[in-house]
């Protein structure tokens, strides 16, 4: 290793503002790597370095312990676990690359600079996980291990701003240079918000609007539409928030309540409580010409039907195919499939509901991609996803369905180009008009993007 390379890596570590401790871990890591390169035992290398540096016995022991710790520490120049996984994917060029695509569901966040919790995980713990290599699920809350597999490929520990997502969209992830999909616009969906209790409750998450607008200024393809978090339990108390957000042409809101009585998901941070107030809130959103995204599991489809019937003039988007389940403790996949199919059919009778064909890469779906060492190809994903997507389209029609990436959450199962290729494989025999609706028109009309 050249001296200039060592200096550059030391600078990267010091830039993390971890101070002397980070520098010691870096030194220990460099010594360990050097020893492995020379075929020498780490202890022998550490002992030699300690003599050369004239360290005391106690300092020598600390340096050795630091070398062991460095095995589990992600250095600033190393990729995150999720990126290592994606790098092992079979490279694919985009199918039908000239087709205009609107991606109506993705998230952005930056755990480096934002003091932002994720679900029930404090932001300080998130920063700890950022710097851990191959974290065992024994170190995680159980709902996170159920969500992200045997190794921590959790997307929320690494930065995912517009710059990072643009690499995925342009098929440049993991240093690739393949043909990308023609993504012309995206819709930003709330990412658990930057909660600020110092403000009125209806505006607790308004700082996420500032972030979304800032990222759109970086790249105008992103965040053409913005969907922010809101608490429907506030009912008509949401009016000041709607007045404020309408000035910024916010497309709509999302109430995340993906929960399950058997504990598959994280404890819901915003459960539905007062349905009289909730119905008023949903109707009010429609009066402002905005839409409501609803994130839920298949067990909550009856609740979504009640919301849609109570507010027929409000456009409601069912996220992620209404969350079909396929993991423990739900073992009977055939029974789950039949229950989901029936729920989708009943929901489609609500003409104000749109369906997002997305979220099938999440671990809860039970396809097991996230526990593989190599991501699936688009053909594999298409084979597994086809019956869900075609049933939803059959019930709702192409003018009420839209394909979406759900990145970076679905990135735990595959790369961006492969995910949209899977969608295109599934509908390759559809007419040109139907494809245009699924990949562009429905999203454009639902979120009033004006494209």
Describe the structure.
This protein has helices spanning 3-15, 19-38, 42-53, 57-69, 81-87, 123-130, 142-148, 162-169, 207-218, 239-246, 275-287, 301-310, 333-347, 378-396, 416-426, 432-446; strands at 100-106, 182-189, 225-229, 252-256, 291-295, 316-318, 353-357, 401-403. 42% of the residues lie in helices and 9% in strands. α2 (19-38) crosses α3 (42-53), α2 crosses α4 and α12 packs parallel to α13. It has an 8-stranded parallel sheet. The chain has 451 residues and is α/β, with parallel strands linked by helices. It has 16 helices and 8 strands.
From the N-terminal CA to the C-terminal CA, the straight-line distance is 52 Å
Radius of gyration (CA) equals: 24 Å
Specify the structural class: alpha/beta
Q: State the order of secondary-structure elements, H for helix, E for strand.
A: HHHHHEHHHEHEHEHEHEHEHEHH
Largest sheet: 8 strands, parallel
| % residues in beta strands | 5-15%
Assembly type of the chains comes to single chain
Shape: globular
* Total E-strand runs: 8
What's the mean pLDDT score? 83
